[in-house]
What does this fold into?
Amino acid sequence: MIKAAILGYGTVGSGVFNVIKENSELINSRAGQEIEIKHVLDLRKFPGDPVESVLTDNFEDIADDPEVKIVVEVMGGIGAAYEFTKRCLEEGKNVCTSNKELVAEHGLELMRIARENDVNYFFEASCGGGIPIIRALNDCLTADDIDQITGILNGTTNFILTEMTQNDGVSFSKVLKQAQANGFAERDPSADIDGYDPARKIAILSSIIFGSSVDYKDIYTEGIRKISAEDIKYASTMGYAVKLLAEAKKTGDGVRAYVAPFLLDQNHPLYSINGVMNAVYVHGNMLGDAVFTGAGAGSLPTASAVVADVIDAARHDGKRAYCGWRHDEKLALASNDGIKRRYLVRIYTEDQGKANSVFAPDGFLDTISIGDLEEEVAFITPELSEKDFETKEKAFGKIISRIRFY
Amino acid sequence: MIKAAILGYGTVGSGVFNVIKENSELINSRAGQEIEIKHVLDLRKFPGDPVESVLTDNFEDIADDPEVKIVVEVMGGIGAAYEFTKRCLEEGKNVCTSNKELVAEHGLELMRIARENDVNYFFEASCGGGIPIIRALNDCLTADDIDQITGILNGTTNFILTEMTQNDGVSFSKVLKQAQANGFAERDPSADIDGYDPARKIAILSSIIFGSSVDYKDIYTEGIRKISAEDIKYASTMGYAVKLLAEAKKTGDGVRAYVAPFLLDQNHPLYSINGVMNAVYVHGNMLGDAVFTGAGAGSLPTASAVVADVIDAARHDGKRAYCGWRHDEKLALASNDGIKRRYLVRIYTEDQGKANSVFAPDGFLDTISIGDLEEEVAFITPELSEKDFETKEKAFGKIISRIRFY
It folds into this structure.
């Protein structure tokens, strides 16, 4: 038998408690021993809830209990969660978390502390919800040099973009309000819609595949706040989907990473990932292409990933598990300036001549018009580097919007 | 350092040799120790090939070498491969294989022998090529009761069906010949096109998720030999794709399993899996839906999966790894008779009245006509059990073809 504690009895914490109870027989057989939840930390009371008998409001009950070998940190945030995680690792306890903010911010330090104390810090649920992407990278695709990861890593923004696509003409702000009403979006939605959440996740995944820490603050991050119903209409007319992608890729110049909305054609492996689903495309030098798809969020899918960590912690009781994120140094990302792409650019009709001379001085731009948008026209640029596009955009002046083609 | 041997230097064997050489640094770091290929067994000579220095034509060189702790069996077939695997396991060596015939036929016995000798029998590459589906089930989705697996598990048939769909009107036999010419299909294609290959694979995957051995010979198996250009045309007209699915599902009556072509609508997670790609849909009671997609075959993707097994064998040197397929008994499958589905049925136009009275005595059948097929008409049945459909089909007499809707 191995004893565990849960820090936080919120959405994910109660999910973890219930998954372990519901699937106990299977879980114990897979863990190789019985897993017992000895404490659950929460300041609230839950009268009548089965958690009552193990509830505590004192973290020291857990930190000081030498019987507790596994601690599940599902409090979120980086204040108390950071202090508690550090303390538990120092006390020789394995820690399993769904806390992507904490892993992205302090993962390097926490993993060093785990190493020094001969325990494990697991964070499967921090990326891709129920998709077992971290374990796939650490334990499954081990024969490959993984040189690219491209993911739809945020369910909220994918839900918003899908709704905008399926309900032609509906605005970003209207869908956001609906998502907030349904509980698919936070009241302060900035981490999602401005792309910080997927930036944290791609930083974590990159750190695993490249070995050294990628700082999410170094990643070029553009969200979907500016995507309008008209942008979606152009995309649909061309047979493209707009998706918020988070990508990290090994190139001749080093590792490049970015989060931004992209236009994907129907053959792109992430084209048909809709609603709150997440998906991660991985390229290995031997494997070729692989895609992992699943629920990106939700109490039970997230809890399923956390409990898989708990089982792995039980399997590795007293042993260190392999984690690709194993170097102490930080990875300096390469500049994105040289990446070449085509862009869809919307401008006012009267600026068409100027657009041609700036964006295609040696040829003619293909333009796309949509019937009910008479004042404007869109065109597709030739392949331009990020740097060149930026220069030309400045030279041109006022554009309505621009989206990168993948 | 841990020493390994490879049985067979064919497509997969040479792939394994090359992957271990090419990615040695990463592989050794993930294995926790250096992996050295000490012997490669093949009766052929390979002058000038780097394998020459470790080549042997005598199996005893490997079986008798106490230094060899990991044996890669990639010979295929169930004759010598079976004898050699048994002997290696008995000699206390871990065995990693891509041999789905052998695992489906003798997996239960070989796993018992591995258990008795405290070693591991790994077979990641036996299902889904490079997709890490077996490790996902054994080591990643461990918190879940997996109650359904539905896969496109055969690249050859998926390639044929995709070609037939994308090149409107091309016949099965023409695409098969083309696939044989390209090396995508065997000269004797029966294991693929008659569905025996995916039946073996779904038997292996079912044995892992349900714990007891599923015998592939118990699985209802229907291939794609009868799928015609006209069937594909009806499917496309309706917006459906025809896919050869292998499915195992826990129901109130027990586990049901089958391999058959199905009509999938655009929202089905396997609808857009095209060409030689494989994909596996998995449903977990906590996780919900997850899909794993990747190259189903090919030297390097398959070798990538085998080498991941070799790394796992090195990580578990002297220890047993968890495998869900852990019970010694055989699983008796439930009958498929009661499964209710709609069917697309093609008949001669003159039999339309009779079709209505047999298949929809209380209503009217929706019919579908395709311009250039004047002599026939197709209709969609109401939901009927497999048993009922069979009875009605007999009562009706000659139909042109029928395909199940998923």
Remarks:
- Chain B has three domains: 2-128+300-315, 134-295, 340-405.
- Residues 134-295 of chain B form a domain with the Dihydrodipicolinate Reductase; domain 2 fold (CATH 3.30.360.10).
